[in-house]
Structure formats: C-alpha cells, structure tokens
Amino acid sequence: MTTAGHTVEKIGGTSMSRLDQLRETLLIGTREGCDLYGRVFVVSAFGGITNLLLEHKKSGEPGVYAAFANAPEGHGWLEKLDRVAVAMRAAHAKVLDHPADLAQADDFVRDRIEGARSFLIDMQRLSSYGHFRLSRQMQIIRELLSGLGEAHSAFTATQLLRRFGVAARFVDLTGWRDERELCLTERLQDGMKGVDLSTEMAIVTGYAQCTEGLMAEFDRGYSEVTFSRLAALTGATEAIIHKEFHLSSADPGLVGADQVRKLGHTNYDVADQLANLGMEAIHPKAAQSLRQAQIPLRVTNAFEPDDPGTLIDEAPADKAAAEIVTGLPVIALELFEPDMVGVKGYDAAILEVLRRHKASIVSKSSNANTITHYLDVSLKIARRIEADLQDAYPTAQVTTRQAAIASVIGRDLRGLNALLRGLRALDEAGIEVIAAQQPSRCVDVQYVIPRDGLNEAIKALHHELCAETQKPMLAVTAA
User: Fold this and answer.
1) Model confidence over 183-209: pLDDT tens digits?
2) Which of 161, 192, 250, 327 could cross-link with 168 by S-S, CB 3.0 to 4.6 Å?
C-alpha cells in the first residue's frame, strides 16, 4: 500500500442508506482531483440489513441466523434469506441510477445470497450425521452471514463512486471463498496490498474475516474494531467516524436543539464513560487501538462536511467543565449479607456469576454488608443472576429492581461541586435519588434514580451543569 498522509474514516449503516447524499457531501462534494484521495472509508451494511441477516438489535426479531440457529432442521431461514435479497436490491436501487451499475449490483447480491444458501444447506446436510456437531459451527455461520451486508454496501458504494469519476477500489475483507486462514493484521494487509491512496479511494468492508473471529468478542461492534486496527496499521494521521448527528452535550431531541452544544473537543476518557452508558462514540476496544497508536479520533456529522465535528484525543481540559449529560436504564442487583463483614471472596463470586451470564456492569457500590451492581441486562437475565446468587448464598437477601443512571461527564469536573449541584437540581425537579457517587478521578458523576425519571433527570442536570455556562449549538440533528 502506498500512503502519503491519509485518514481512515467509518460510515455507519444509517448514513450508508443515504449514500446518494453522502456522495454530494462527504465522498465527493466539491472535491476534485487529488483532493478526493488520501481517504479510506470503512463502511457498515445498509441500515436494517444486518438485522435481517442476524436478528433485530432492539426487538430481537429473528433474522436468517437466529431462524437457522433455532430450527436448523427446518426451512424457515430460507424465507428470511429471500427477504435479505429483496432488501439488498431495494437498498442499492435507491442510490444507483445507471442500468449497468444496477445489473452488476443485482448480480453481486445473487452470487452472495446463493452462496450463503448453498453453505447453509450443506450445514443442514452435515448435521444429519452423528459425528458432526452443528453447534460448534454456529459462530462461523454468524460471521459469514454478517459479512454479506458489508460486502454489499461496499460494492455498491464503489460502483456509485466510479460512475462519478472517482478511482474507487472495493476492498473485500470478508474472506468470501478464500481458503486461507489469516489473522486480522494479515487480512488487513492483504486487503490493502497494492492500493495507492494518493490516487485511489479505498472502500473497505466493516467486517473482516480472521482467525481471531471478531464477532466472538465484539459481536456487532466489529466494524469499529476493523476501522481502528486499519487506522493503526496504516499509520493514519486521523481516524474519523461519520454519524448522522454531532456529539453534543445531551440528546437534542430531549433537551432541545437550541440548548445543546457540540462538544468540539474532548478526550478518550470521556469516550470511555460514554461507552459505559451505552452512548458509544467508539467501541472501547477500538478506542484502545487508536490510543496506543497515538491517533486522534474525530466524530463528525456526515452531512455537514465543512464542520470539523468533535476531536477526541489525550489532551486534558483547559478548564473544569461538565461536557455531556446522558443516562441509561439499568437493573440494580443488590446482595445483602450480614455475615459479609470482614470476609473476602463475595466480590469475586458475584463477578463470576455476572461473567457467566455476560452481564454488562455499568456501576457498582458497596458497604460493610451490601454489594450493589447496576447492570445493563434484560430483566429476564437479571432474574437468572438473582437465582444463581441466592443458591450460592442461601442466607443472603438478593434483590433486583429496575432503575436508571443519569450521569454528568467531563474531562475535569474538579471544583464544580457537580455532585451537590446535581442533587439540588434533581430535588428541585421532584426526582428521587436512590444513590449518587462521584469517583475520585472527577470525570463523571452518577445518580441512580427511578427509571421513569431518567429523561427529566437528564434535562434538569443539563440545565444546571451544561446549559448555563455554554453557548447553545443551533444546528444539531438528533440521532
């Protein structure tokens, strides 16, 4: 690969569904000649396609993978796969106009869908033999299906750009019909081999097939891992994530677009706190790769290419300030055991149960005889965890209840009296505070509140700690 100072940029699925608009703004816009190049774009599948391939991220409605996993001997997944093909063709028909481009995109979809169909039928056939265990292959099946979405969107984007005179190169990292076993680094190096970024625009699939198995650890966060590792491996001057909205001081749809402000500049510590509360600027593991490579991250609005967005790096704050207010519904899991005082091992035992159930820990508090974890899990999973802990500690009182955490986050909150001012603001808004804490690093304050009070809490905290000291940002688009 030939480079001369370049950026690696990621486009999410919702933005990809507006690919024709991206062509007019981000991808081409007013750029001409060499200004078009020096950029690598890592793309997600068109909006909704991965839900159809796997399962719906929010509702859990089965896609091809879930239908196959739940009834591998049946044929319900075939109908699901046909739905994917229809949705893919509809997605590229919205952005491609030329008959030749449409024909090539249709052929591409047909090849990938029929290939996946044949693969799954073969898996069904093999599973009829007693020596073959389909359960051991399900992760491979999940990865193969997921890669179909990114391959389709990257191929379509490449076709569109070529039609408008851009020297775009389709970089397929999905390992389609590739018998080689490559680690992620080798897969990235192989994909970028021969690419001259000074004269070509690389359009790269967000999914990368590799021996590590990205989905086993990151599941649907894999595209950001591909993006960050590619930026680090190629020595990018900057990594850029393009979203449909600016990273702002709160959800503008909640507190009002005339009240929030674009962050403009923050650091990776703040990004980690946001990820902990489900508001990911970037996946924590992806951020780790960029931090280690000393590559700054920029988060921009994909449809406002002249706006620099928000820069995320290692720089400390110039002055103490609350930067963003957000929150998350949680399950409060409380274990009360009078005999806990002075006895070691309770923490480790609880964490092992949480690990076994793959529970995401948002926050935690403890005293002499009580340990409380605030979890980002479904109530169903929380009940299972509760039952396991009750079996492990029959004399303990183990309870779960729905709650929420509202948090004020900033690079430096020292001297702001944020905890006290937040408590006062919540009290004035009539919101009960179940618990509150400000960790010693002074980058966030957390308030545990009733779940139905989360939105009002965010508005009250933002008004108290952000809006009064910051100029509003008038042009913010909600997520």
Assistant:
1) 999 999 999 999 999 999 999 999 999
2) 161
Instruction: Tally DSSP H helices, then E strands, for the chain.
Output: 17, 14
Those residues with Cβ within 8 angstroms of residue 155's Cβ, 6 or more apart along the chain or in another chain: 105, 108, 170, 172
For the cut 90, the answer to whether the pLDDT of residue 335 exceeds it is yes
Distance CA 256, CA 260 (A): 7
How far apart CA 227 and CA 452 sit, in angstroms, is: 37
Cα 282 to Cα 15, 271, 316, 411: the distances in Å are 16, 7, 19, 17
Per mean pLDDT, which range of 6-20, 34-48, 280-294 is the poorest? 280-294
- Single pTM value for the model: 0.87
Q: Tens of pLDDT along 209-258?
A: 999 888 877 888 889 999 999 999 999 999 999 998 889 999 999 999 88
| Residue 281 confidence class, pLDDT cut points 50, 70, 90 | confident
- Dump pLDDT digits (tens) for 384-436: 999 999 999 999 999 999 999 999 999 999 999 999 999 999 999 999 999 99
CA–CA distance from 465 to each of 13, 44, 458, 471 (Å)?
Answer: 33, 36, 10, 13
Q: How far is CA 436 from CA 277, 332, 401, 441, 465, in A?
A: 15, 13, 17, 15, 16
CA–CA dist 451, 447 (Å, integer): 11
Contacts of 476 (CB under 8 A, 6+ apart): 245, 246, 248, 252, 257, 260, 262
257: amino acid identity, one letter: A
Beta bridge partners of 324: 409
Strands across the sheet containing 310-313: 168-171, 201-205, 39-43, 7-11, 238-243, 297-301, 310-313, 265-267
d(CA 9, CA 227): 7
Nearest C-alpha neighbor of 289 from the set 357, 354, 211, 235: 235
